[in-house]
Amino acid sequence: MDVQRSVLDRFDTSGDYLGRLGEAVAAARTAGLPVIYVVVGFRPGHPEVSPRNTSFGAVAGSGRFATGDPGAEIHPDVAPRPEDVVVTKRRVSAFAGSDLDLVLRSGGIEHLVLTGIATSGVVLSTVRQAADLDFRLTVLDDACLNADPEVHRVLTEKVFPRQADVLSVADWTKALAGSGG
């Protein structure tokens, strides 16, 4: 979720974040699991952004994350394939202002494996909403990034385990390979 050029530019990815994320995507594809990308995006002029919205108010009128903005593109190291679904959201949660719930339910998907930037943003908001919608959840902790490492640690070690299994990419891919998909 939100693995877009402009988002990644704000984070230190020197620890091979994109490599781990690529491993998770490859493992999902090998197991025959659908890969769904979630991006933040707006129409030209940002009509979806209220001036009262502190998260997105700064981008209103800037052209950022609007149709055609190169910074809104998914990073090419983990780019979607034609068979993958790309969902555009209008707020922090992957469900807010998107058709994600419709896509998941139409595909009979009941278990979500979540990754993304930022742990305290899209990942937290999506975990909470997905749990309330009765999805089974796994969060890949080392395929999530946050500007504050301590916030990331608290969320992945203390908050998320109340609603999700929290695993590393390596542990998840190993379990996935052992389960036969």
Automatic annotation (TrEMBL):
| Key words, A-Z | Hydrolase
In this chain the Isochorismatase-like domain maps to: 2-171
Give one Pfam hit by family name.
Isochorismatase
A GO molecular function held by the record: hydrolase activity
Q: Which domain of life is it from?
A: Bacteria
CDD domains per UniProt: cysteine_hydrolases (cd00431)
Q: What is this protein called?
A: Isochorismatase
